[in-house]
Amino acid sequence: LPVRELAEVLGSAVTQPKGLDYGWARGEAVLLEQVARFFDLIGVPRRPAVVVGGATQGLFLALYALASPGDTVLTDAATYSDALSCCASLGLRTLGVEDDEQGMVPEALERSIGDERAAGRRPAAIYMIPTAHNPLGMTLGTERRDALVAIARRHGVAIVEDETYALFDGTEVPRLSALAPELVIRLDSLSKVLGPGLRIGWISGPDEVMDRVNQLKAAVDVCASVPLQRAVATLLPEIRDLAAPQLRGLEERRAALLGSLDEHFGGLCRWTRPRGGYFVWMDLCGRCGSMDLFRAGLKAGVAVLPGAIFSPHRLDTAVRLGCANRTPAELREGVARLRRAYDTLLSGDKSG
Ligand SMILES: Cc1ncc(COP(=O)(O)O)c(C=O)c1O
Fold it and tell me: Whose CA is nearest to atom 4 of ligand 1?
C-alpha cells in the first residue's frame, strides 16, 4: 500500500482552511470532481455520487434505499460474505442464482426473478461483483454482462454493481453502470488500493436513488471524514500508478498459487483461473465438504475459507483460496499442506 504518499497528503489535509469542519453529506467538492474523472478513466458516464465509508456502507445505504424488509436480493450462488450479512441485518432475503464458469447464468436469473414474483415476493435488487469477483475470482465477459443487464431491465430490477476490485482486472469490458446507467447503483472503494482502514469509497447511481442515499448518509454520520476526502482527492488522479506495484505482486502470487494447485490438486478438484484479484474458488467435486476441509486445513497449518460462508444457501461444495498477503513460497507451502489435509480427510484418519 502507498503508505508514504498517504502520510504526506494526510498531514497537509488537516492543516488546510476548514480542514476539520463538518462537510456536505454528498462529499467534498474536490473529491467529487476527481470521482467524475475516475469515471472518465474507467468508461462510466459521469453520474451523481455520494462519498461513503467504503463499499460496505455504500451497500447498506443502497439496499436501505431500494428495499424493504422481506424483499429479496438476488446474488451469485457464492458471493461476498459481508454482503450476505448486510442483507440479513436489513431483514432482506438472499437468493443465490446459479453460476457457471462465466459467472451468473442469465436463464437462471430470469427464472429466479419469476419464481420470487410468483411466490409474492419483491426482487428489490441484484447484487453483482463483475470484476475480479470475491470469492469466485472471475470477471464477467461482455456477452454475459449484456445478457444479465437485459434481464434486469426487462423486469425493472435494480443492479448493485460492487466494483471494489475495479482496477484489478485490466480486461476491456464495459462496466454495468455504463451499460445501464438508469438501472445500476455502483459502489467504488479505495480500500484495496490505498488501504481498508481508511474507510473511503463512493456510491453513484440514478438521481432519485442518490437523493435518498444523500439523505441517509446525512442521517447516519453527517459526512465522510473531511480531511480524509481532501487527502485522497489529491491521490485519485494517480490511482492506476499507485495500484501498479500491488497488481504486479498479485500477478506473481496468483501464478504461484495456480501452479501449485495444478501440481497438488490436478485431476481431483476444479478451480477458477482468475486474471485479477485475490481469490481462487476451488470446487471440491463432491469428494469432501468445505467445512471439513477448512478444519483439516487448520490442523495442517493452512487456512482456507469454507464456501458455505459465501453461499446464501450454505452450500458446502467449494473453498476460497486467497493470495492477497502471502509470498509465492508461502502460497506453495500452503497448497502442499492443504493437499496433506485433504489426503488425511479422505483417508478418514482423524488424527492428522
Ligand atoms: C466484493 C467486496 N465488496 C466490498 C468489500 C469491502 O469494501 P470496503 O472496505 O470498501 O467496505 C470487500 C472487501 O473485501 C469485497 O471483497
Answer: 55
Binding site membership of 134 for ligand 1 (Cβ less than 6 Å) = yes
pLDDT confidence of residue 349: 58
**Whole-prediction pTM:** 0.96
Q: Cell numbers of 326, please? A: 502471502
Cα of 103 to ligand 1 centre, how many Å? 19
Average pLDDT value for residue range 27-54: 97
Closest residue (by CA) to atom 13 of ligand 1? 164
- Tell me the best of 86, 140, 164, 310 to mutate to test the pocket of ligand 1, counting ligand atoms within 8 Å of each CB and taking the most: 164
Residue whose CA lies nearest to ligand 1 atom number 7? 55
Task: Give the span between the Cα atoms of 116 and 69, in whole angstroms.
Answer: 15
Give pLDDT tens digits for 122-178: 999 999 999 999 999 999 999 999 999 999 999 999 999 999 999 999 888 999 999
Q: How far is CA 27 from the centre of its chain?
A: 22
Query: Please, which residues have CB within 8 angstroms of residue 35's CB and are 6 or more apart in sequence?
Result: 27, 49, 51, 188, 202, 204, 236
Beta strands in the chain (DSSP E): 49-52, 72-76, 93-97, 99-100, 103-104, 123-128, 158-162, 184-189, 201-204, 270-271, 279-283, 305-306, 318-322
Ligand 1 atom nearest to 189, measured from its CA: 10
What spacing in Å lies between the alpha carbon of 209 and ligand 1's midpoint? 21
